[in-house]
Amino acid sequence: MKLLLTLLLWVNFVGNPDLASIRKMYPNVTKSESNAKEFSEKLAAISDDGNKTLVAYKAASILLDSNFKKKLKDKIERFKEGAKLLESTIKSEPDNIEIRMIRLSIQENVPGVTGYKKNIKEDKKYLTEHFADQSGALKEYLKDFILQSKSFSEKEKQFVK
Protein backbone atom coordinates (compact mmCIF):
# COMPACT_ATOMS: atom_id res chain seq x y z
CA MET A 1 0.00 0.00 0.00
CA LYS A 2 2.83 2.37 0.88
CA LEU A 3 4.50 1.63 -2.46
CA LEU A 4 1.27 2.32 -4.35
CA LEU A 5 0.81 5.66 -2.57
CA THR A 6 4.41 6.64 -3.29
CA LEU A 7 3.99 5.66 -6.94
CA LEU A 8 0.77 7.68 -7.26
CA LEU A 9 2.41 10.74 -5.70
CA TRP A 10 5.41 10.39 -8.00
CA VAL A 11 3.23 10.06 -11.13
CA ASN A 12 1.20 13.11 -10.06
CA PHE A 13 4.34 15.15 -9.40
CA VAL A 14 6.00 14.14 -12.66
CA GLY A 15 2.76 14.50 -14.63
CA ASN A 16 1.97 18.05 -13.57
CA PRO A 17 4.57 20.63 -14.55
CA ASP A 18 5.26 23.56 -12.30
CA LEU A 19 4.53 27.06 -13.53
CA ALA A 20 8.17 28.18 -13.29
CA SER A 21 9.35 25.48 -15.70
CA ILE A 22 6.54 26.25 -18.14
CA ARG A 23 7.36 29.97 -18.05
CA LYS A 24 10.98 29.14 -18.76
CA MET A 25 10.04 27.03 -21.79
CA TYR A 26 7.39 29.30 -23.29
CA PRO A 27 9.58 31.97 -24.93
CA ASN A 28 11.38 29.26 -26.93
CA VAL A 29 8.50 27.06 -28.06
CA THR A 30 8.23 28.63 -31.50
CA LYS A 31 11.93 28.22 -32.24
CA SER A 32 11.61 24.57 -33.27
CA GLU A 33 9.11 21.78 -33.68
CA SER A 34 10.92 19.75 -31.01
CA ASN A 35 10.56 22.62 -28.50
CA ALA A 36 6.85 22.88 -29.32
CA LYS A 37 6.36 19.12 -28.95
CA GLU A 38 8.20 19.01 -25.62
CA PHE A 39 6.09 21.91 -24.36
CA SER A 40 2.91 20.20 -25.52
CA GLU A 41 3.90 16.89 -23.90
CA LYS A 42 4.60 18.60 -20.56
CA LEU A 43 1.13 20.12 -20.58
CA ALA A 44 -0.84 17.18 -21.95
CA ALA A 45 -1.85 15.92 -18.50
CA ILE A 46 -3.24 19.29 -17.39
CA SER A 47 -7.00 19.02 -16.99
CA ASP A 48 -9.17 21.82 -18.32
CA ASP A 49 -10.59 22.41 -14.86
CA GLY A 50 -7.17 22.67 -13.15
CA ASN A 51 -4.88 25.65 -12.58
CA LYS A 52 -6.19 28.17 -15.12
CA THR A 53 -2.77 29.60 -15.92
CA LEU A 54 -1.48 26.12 -16.81
CA VAL A 55 -4.66 25.49 -18.80
CA ALA A 56 -3.93 28.67 -20.78
CA TYR A 57 -0.42 27.41 -21.53
CA LYS A 58 -1.96 24.10 -22.60
CA ALA A 59 -4.25 26.03 -24.95
CA ALA A 60 -1.20 27.84 -26.34
CA SER A 61 0.51 24.49 -26.89
CA ILE A 62 -2.50 23.27 -28.87
CA LEU A 63 -2.48 26.46 -30.96
CA LEU A 64 1.25 26.03 -31.61
CA ASP A 65 0.75 22.37 -32.47
CA SER A 66 -1.63 23.39 -35.25
CA ASN A 67 1.42 24.78 -37.11
CA PHE A 68 2.86 21.30 -37.47
CA LYS A 69 -0.18 19.53 -38.85
CA LYS A 70 0.20 18.47 -42.48
CA LYS A 71 -3.44 18.69 -43.61
CA LEU A 72 -5.21 22.04 -43.65
CA LYS A 73 -8.31 20.49 -42.08
CA ASP A 74 -6.22 19.20 -39.16
CA LYS A 75 -4.52 22.60 -38.76
CA ILE A 76 -7.87 24.38 -38.60
CA GLU A 77 -9.41 21.89 -36.16
CA ARG A 78 -6.41 22.03 -33.83
CA PHE A 79 -6.29 25.84 -34.02
CA LYS A 80 -10.00 26.12 -33.17
CA GLU A 81 -9.57 23.70 -30.27
CA GLY A 82 -6.73 25.76 -28.79
CA ALA A 83 -8.47 29.10 -29.32
CA LYS A 84 -11.69 27.82 -27.74
CA LEU A 85 -9.82 26.52 -24.70
CA LEU A 86 -7.88 29.77 -24.30
CA GLU A 87 -11.02 31.90 -24.58
CA SER A 88 -12.91 29.79 -22.03
CA THR A 89 -9.93 30.06 -19.67
CA ILE A 90 -9.89 33.85 -19.99
CA LYS A 91 -13.64 33.94 -19.48
CA SER A 92 -13.24 32.01 -16.22
CA GLU A 93 -10.39 34.27 -14.98
CA PRO A 94 -10.62 37.61 -16.82
CA ASP A 95 -8.34 39.34 -14.29
CA ASN A 96 -5.46 36.89 -14.67
CA ILE A 97 -2.72 39.00 -16.26
CA GLU A 98 -0.61 36.02 -17.26
CA ILE A 99 -3.46 34.45 -19.21
CA ARG A 100 -3.96 37.80 -20.97
CA MET A 101 -0.25 37.84 -21.82
CA ILE A 102 -0.51 34.33 -23.28
CA ARG A 103 -3.42 35.35 -25.51
CA LEU A 104 -1.59 38.49 -26.60
CA SER A 105 1.52 36.47 -27.44
CA ILE A 106 -0.57 34.14 -29.59
CA GLN A 107 -2.66 36.80 -31.30
CA GLU A 108 0.26 39.02 -32.23
CA ASN A 109 1.92 36.09 -34.02
CA VAL A 110 -0.92 34.28 -35.81
CA PRO A 111 -1.65 35.03 -39.45
CA GLY A 112 -4.47 37.52 -40.04
CA VAL A 113 -6.39 34.92 -42.04
CA THR A 114 -7.18 33.09 -38.77
CA GLY A 115 -9.35 35.97 -37.59
CA TYR A 116 -7.86 35.50 -34.12
CA LYS A 117 -6.43 38.96 -33.55
CA LYS A 118 -9.38 40.84 -32.07
CA ASN A 119 -8.13 41.12 -28.46
CA ILE A 120 -4.67 42.60 -28.99
CA LYS A 121 -5.59 46.16 -27.97
CA GLU A 122 -7.66 44.93 -25.01
CA ASP A 123 -4.90 42.66 -23.67
CA LYS A 124 -2.19 45.24 -24.30
CA LYS A 125 -4.21 47.80 -22.33
CA TYR A 126 -4.78 45.28 -19.52
CA LEU A 127 -1.06 44.51 -19.26
CA THR A 128 -0.19 48.20 -19.29
CA GLU A 129 -2.72 49.08 -16.57
CA HIS A 130 -1.97 46.15 -14.25
CA PHE A 131 1.76 45.60 -14.71
CA ALA A 132 2.72 47.76 -11.71
CA ASP A 133 0.44 45.71 -9.43
CA GLN A 134 2.46 42.53 -10.04
CA SER A 135 5.42 41.38 -8.02
CA GLY A 136 8.39 39.06 -8.10
CA ALA A 137 8.94 36.47 -10.79
CA LEU A 138 5.67 37.20 -12.59
CA LYS A 139 6.54 40.89 -12.98
CA GLU A 140 9.96 40.02 -14.42
CA TYR A 141 8.39 37.47 -16.76
CA LEU A 142 5.82 40.00 -17.99
CA LYS A 143 8.56 42.60 -18.43
CA ASP A 144 10.59 40.21 -20.59
CA PHE A 145 7.53 39.51 -22.72
CA ILE A 146 6.60 43.18 -23.14
CA LEU A 147 10.14 44.18 -24.11
CA GLN A 148 10.19 41.68 -26.99
CA SER A 149 6.51 42.05 -27.97
CA LYS A 150 5.55 43.29 -31.42
CA SER A 151 2.40 44.88 -30.00
CA PHE A 152 4.18 47.53 -27.94
CA SER A 153 6.11 50.39 -29.55
CA GLU A 154 9.48 51.39 -28.09
CA LYS A 155 7.80 54.38 -26.48
CA GLU A 156 5.05 52.21 -24.98
CA LYS A 157 7.62 49.81 -23.52
CA GLN A 158 8.99 52.54 -21.24
CA PHE A 159 6.52 51.72 -18.47
CA VAL A 160 8.36 48.46 -17.70
CA LYS A 161 11.86 49.91 -17.60
**Largest beta sheet, briefly?**
none
Question: On the 0-100 scale, what is the average pLDDT?
Answer: 90
Distance between the termini: 54 Å
Helical content stands at 55-70%
> What portion of residues belong to β-strands?
under 5%
Radius of gyration: 17 Å
Report on the structure:
The protein is mainly alpha-helical and 161 residues long. Helices cover 63% and strands 0% of the residues. The longest helix is centred in the middle third of the chain and has 21 residues, at 72-92. It is globular, with a radius of gyration of 17 Å. Residues 1-13 have low confidence and may be disordered.
Summarize the structure.
The chain has 161 residues and is an all-alpha fold. The protein is built from 8 helices and no strands.
Question: How is the topology of this model organized?
Answer:
Elements: H1 2-15, H2 19-25, H3 33-43, H4 52-65, H5 72-92, H6 97-107, H7 120-130, H8 136-148
Helix pairs in contact: 3-4, 4-5, 4-6, 6-7
Key words describing this protein structure:
single chain; disordered N terminus; globular; mainly alpha; 0% strand
